[in-house]
Amino acid sequence: MTFSDYRVAVVTGATSGVGRGAVDLFLDKGLTVHAIARDEERLAALAEKGAITHALNVRDTAALTRALEGVEADVVLNSAGVGRQGNILTATEADIDDLIEVNLGAVMHILRLLYPGMVERDRGHVLNISSIAGHYNFFGHTGYHATKAAVHQLSRQLRNDALGKRVRVTELSPGRIETEIFSRNVGRTPETEAEAWATYFEGYESLTVDDVVAAIEYAVDAPSHVNVGLIELMPTFQVPGGLTFDRRDQAAQ
Question: Which positions are annotated as active-site residues?
Fold first, then answer.
């Protein structure tokens, strides 16, 4: 199955990062694209390019349901996501709720609404953006790790749910990408954007949005008998390995 077999795509997080890049890809391939995001100004720019836009917060399940009613999606890209600094020791109630409701809950609700139609029509492709944080342990961002690990398992389970149907599921698990998520973690202002760039990207050869969009194109354009289940993309100079062993002072015991 290739792009020529599909007609309609739904993209969350459509106004920035991977979601924004994917909207361009899907439009270029001739698909009707439903673009979901909160930023109305950026959505207006996508509407000018031909996308059908939906200004809503993916945490609003009722709004999602209204927006997707009657949509027969062939391709679904779950790209919307949030991150929070710190670990479970410092997390707030709002941090936990945001992470669970955006990174996992919204993904499941969108699939609850659209996946049955794919199965019924015997045609479709789900693309879930997870993270290497869902596969490897490193310090900080505990809630983010937990929700992305859940997306990993959900992606595997979806294949079981559609057994015998020509419905494919791809999890894209990237390392560090040059996107806005780091500046959003500390409150997006011109100052924090500059700070985030200097801290996380300056001097690093990070992934770009184009790198991930190319992987999306590869997975969707694979022959119909091929399901690309998991694509892990990392910068060549970034590795998930490493072992930390904290030695406790005998006197402190």
Answer: 144
